[in-house]
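Hi V.,

You were right to ask for the full record rather than a summary. Here it is.
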Amino acid sequence: MLIKLDSFKNNYLFLLIFIILCIRIVSLYFSPLEVQGDEAQYWYWSTYFDWGYYSKPPLVAWIIGFFTSIFGNSIFILKLPSLLAHFLTSFVLFNLSKAFNRNTEESLWLSITYLLFFAVSLSSNIISTDPFLLLFWSSSLLFFKICLNKKSIKNIILTSIFVALGFYAKYAMIYFFLSSVVLISFTDNKKELVKSILIISFFVLIFISPHLYWVYSTNWVTFIHTGDNFNWNASLYNFEQLINFIVSQFFISTPIILFIFIKQFAKTKKFIQSYSFEIAFSLPILVLITAQSFISRANANWSSVAFIGVTMIAVNILYKNYKKIFLLNTALGLVVLILISVFIINPPNISPFNKLMGMEGAAKEIQFLDESLNSDYIVFDDRMNIAKFLYYLPSKNKKLKYLSYGDHPGNHFEMLMPITIDEITNKKIIMIHRYDLPLNFLKEHLLVKQTYEMPNSKNNFHISYFE
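Predicted structure:
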């Protein structure tokens, strides 16, 4: 589907989208910020192909691998796919809006509103799984809606492909089926809808079967890690976590968008009749994750896919009834976009920005230290730190090891490159340690020869030399 711009106003809206794209590309290109731990971990995954990795499905690594194999390993290229994924999502949302018979102007406003989400302005500068999940979630909704309007095997297969790609991005794609079940309760033609969902489920299982086999062959490591994130073994029923999560949801999109959505529940029956599809693919997710935040904890982005439906409803209501508030919401999004862009280009001397600078210098220091001392191993106790050094110190990658106590591996690096205390006895090692426990443990077995200061003490680790 192509965007047909049939008025001067629409031309200006399209120009605004182009300006947002330019601002994001320029700020990302000129940013001095270095990679964070998760980004470096995804990059390391991308250096070899697999059907899954320790804590995530494989799509983010595949995409990074595709871009870096063509354009190189610069930080700009590493992060660029997230930015592009968000703009592709805005294009998909334009077409999704048109599938609901909404006019071109409103559909462009939906694209702009999504691009000006507070969370999107931030995550466009970070390579993560969420931009790709949102892209394929939106694509799944688009073709599922088309399928509901005009059922065909082509639309069912396209829906299945995008749902499967969503699973390869992040397991939160499972919400698609939860929401589909809720949608069944809203529709009159239940039998046809159930049939379509079952066929889609069948195709999705076929498409993700290589990943499911990988999960099985690795003793369900990814599923176990995902389950651990729910943290149900910790202290349960936490009102503070609940309040924190609820507040955070007002800053995923903008406070205005979520407020407009919540306000509509005062007229429940009419609201459900008008927006049954969007409600089915938003409200159950918000309720479920809010409950999880109270039971234990929940990260703000766990509900991100729900905001596609939330925003479709809010934009439709604002466009029809509250255009001044709509413009205020857009202005608010633009202000946040500009502020984030300024901070990205000229980072303030505060945390967390300090933790994203100085790693390149630290890597050079480690390289000099290793060559001076002729160490046998460079050992870590934190996955974020080993991931960053794998990125910034590729010449020493074979020496990099993760200190393991022989238990079930707690992260990807402990699984792939573990080293135990027995293996470093009578060896010369450089220890990059974030925590005191491994350091104290090693002191009981090895002589501490020297402790070195970091070139940037804000990088959240220290260096010690043992033999």
